[in-house]
Amino acid sequence: MNRPRLGPLGWPAACFMLGLAFGRTLPRRPGQEADSTPASRQIVNHASDAIISANPANIIVMANPAAAALFGTTVGAMIGSPLERFIERPGNAGDGPLDYLSAGSGRAGRRASDYAVTGMRADGRRFPIEGSISRASEAPPFYTVIMRDVTERQRVQEKLSRSHDQLRQLSAALQTIREEERTHIARELHDDLGQILASLRMDLTLLQQNAGTPADSLHLMSGMEQNLLTAIVSLRRIASNLRPRALDEGGLYFALQGLRDDFVERYGIPCSLLADEAELRLDDAASTAIFRIVQEALTNIARHADASSVTMNLFRLNGDLLVTIRDDGRGIRPEDMEKAESLGLIGMRERVWAMRGEISISIEEPSGTRIDIVLPLAGHLV
């Protein structure tokens, strides 16, 4: 049977029903006792939120099955037990249940009756609880606490907070990288192309003056031609650093081949590429994203893996592109994947998520790291 959850109006209503259940809130007319009491008890017993009642001495006088399940015990074991057996008693708590909860770790909601406290299961494990307490105006009074376990919510909030911190650091790092790239490009343009163009201008001035012999003029023109060739090579190199020409001229497959060859030449680590050119004919956005993902993966391997071989496998399956990158290095540690400063991994995840894909990074056996990426190709095929 499905248990009803208690909405915002359910907190005071539950206390009203508890009063009915104990015969303390409303007087019964003759003939009502057999009907109202079982019905109200049934509502409380089948509520999905944990409900307990305590007297002014902090002794539990009622608990529903959801409360027993929450604390890993039985209803019978809870009734007659002190409240502090299941809810951690704050050091500054007063004598009554209301003071007991209000002295806890803090407010949990907008209402003044909502509190965040620490629960204790029967096996001694502690866990976070949000609860609302109400006082029944009876003589003697009793207090009703409605609680729920918020462990999963806190875990999600902590993960979300870490994600926000990582994104802030990534944004700051991208700003720094952008400025460093601009400085690098400006230096190359000034030191390389700038000097060549200045030399060409001087040679052209001498040629215009025509002060020397024809042989001197030919020598000047030969030097100018060599400077022009050097300028063209420098310009292509700078442009290639900004964006690989192979992506525009040959497509993703040939760009990855060039990336693989550069990786092998620079780091001396054997790297194999298993892919079909026909399966990698994608639009510019997808091709660029996949190229940068693979580039970042190879950069991380070169910096951290201490690997002796790398394998890259790209193939289509059911409308998705599956990308697998393996190395036989020392293997990434689980804590490394959660570091806020692991900007390379964060950048890879962001590119994958931007394409509505999935990425997983795991440790290979007996050693090494494996990156598995699934990218939906709908709308990216050409």
Which secondary structure elements does this structure contain, and how are they paired or packed?
Elements: H1 10-22, H2 33-45, E1 50-54, E2 60-63, H3 65-71, H4 75-78, H5 97-102, E3 106-107, E4 114-120, E5 126-136, E6 142-149, H6 151-209, H7 214-242, H8 245-249, H9 252-267, E7 271-274, H10 284-305, E8 310-317, E9 320-327, H11 334-337, H12 343-354, E10 358-363, E11 369-376
Parallel strand pairs: 7-8
Antiparallel strand pairs: 1-2, 1-6, 3-4, 4-5, 5-6, 8-9, 9-11, 10-11
How would you describe what is shown here?
It is built from twelve helices and eleven strands. It has 382 residues and is an alpha+beta fold. It folds into three domains: 140 residues, 2-Layer Sandwich (Beta-Lactamase), CATH 3.30.450; 92 residues; 139 residues, Histidine kinase-like ATPase, C-terminal domain (Heat Shock Protein 90, 2-Layer Sandwich). A hairpin with a 5-residue loop joins β10 and β11. α6 runs antiparallel to α7 and α10 runs antiparallel to α12. The longest helix is centred in the middle third of the chain and has 59 residues. The chain is elongated and about 120 Å long. About 8% of the residues have low confidence.
